[in-house]
Amino acid sequence: MEMEAKIVGGKRESVAERLERHPELKARMERLLDVVENAADEVRLADEAERRAIEELRQMGQEVMQGWGRKASSKEALEMESKGGVVRHVKKLHWMCTFGEITVDEQTYLRKESGKLCRPFQRTAGISCRAYSTRLQRVITDFGADIPFARVLEKVQEHYGITIASGAAATITEHHAHRMTEADMTPDKRPAQGAMTLIAEIDGSMIPMVQTGTTDGDDPTDRRKTRQVFWKEGKLSMIRRSDEINPVFAVTLSDAAAAGADLMRLAIAAGFDQRSRVHGLGDGAPWIEDQIERQFGAQSAYLVDFYHVCDYLAAAKVCAANDSGWMEQQKNYLKTDRLPLVTAALAPFQEPETVPSDQAPVRACYRYLANRPGQFNYLGKSS
Hints:
With 383 residues, the chain is of the alpha+beta class. It has helices spanning 15-20, 23-37, 46-83, 120-125, 134-144, 149-160, 168-179, 256-269, 286-296, 306-316, 326-335, 339-346, 361-370; strands at 6-8, 11-13, 86-97, 100-111, 117-118, 197-211, 228-241, 248-252, 277-282, 300-304. Helices cover 43% and strands 20% of the residues. The strands form three sheets. The protein has a five-stranded mixed β-sheet. It has a three-stranded antiparallel β-sheet with strand order 3-4-5, with helices on both faces. Strands 1-2 form a two-stranded antiparallel ribbon. The longest helix is centred in the first third of the chain and has 38 residues, at 46-83. The chain is elongated and about 95 Å long. The chain starts with 5 loop residues before the first strand and ends in a 13-residue tail after the last helix.
């Protein structure tokens, strides 16, 4: 099949003729054809063919961007000069994209009357010197949201074959994070499919934070000298329809009320209405139960998740160290709504009040269970 021709100056030009005006692209196309035809039988492994193809396409992409930039810059320069009243200067303009660094001789202009600097190519192309293209920013932000910033450089090099500045990952990812609004982090609202149950969870985790500042007065200071490291609780909220697998999440570094508001926002997006029931889960922290109650009221029920209960029971097993079946027996009591039997088994072995809390696992387990009435209804019976 013939490649589509292009009409230039009233004459039909084939792709081959057009490539003659772009020797770098022509050479690159020939190397790609060498991979396809494999005349010398050098490429036997699929992985090697893929590696060569990707490398050639990366280089071709960079050459395409370079060629586009030169032509677009020249076009903008001609239009600016046709209007007159300007003095031309040529500067090197470079920016980063997913194909690597692109460099263009940019025509800049000073208006004779006002002395104002004009950069027609930058304005039209939506790019600035040392900038990162939108697509590359998306790549960096995707990596930066999932892995430490220091590793983003390695990942970009591995997957895109380009080298970015050492501070780019943190700067770009945090820039886009600050621009995100509550609406950006809220899924599109889905209609409720009749009366449904939502699974709701909140959990907190301590996150190390770094804060820098300046000393008193007007003199600038090295921010490293005012560096402070401290811990702050991040609160993660989750909502999932009971008949689905994939949940949606929200996170806040603010207070418990903000986490509860996140939970309600996600629930409404998932279809929560007056017919819905909410099954809340948590690790037993009082503020979690409080937020489930505040947000969903009588439409909700709250349980301490079984995993955390078992953590306390495992520590309390010192009271029956020689009974191999003790742990399974307590689990069975809990699962069959016989909590009093568990607390009865623990009560005689509680450590005295004189024993520090971190050395009193039986007492801790007993209080954990006794202080949370109604939160271990694993059998699902109505209270």
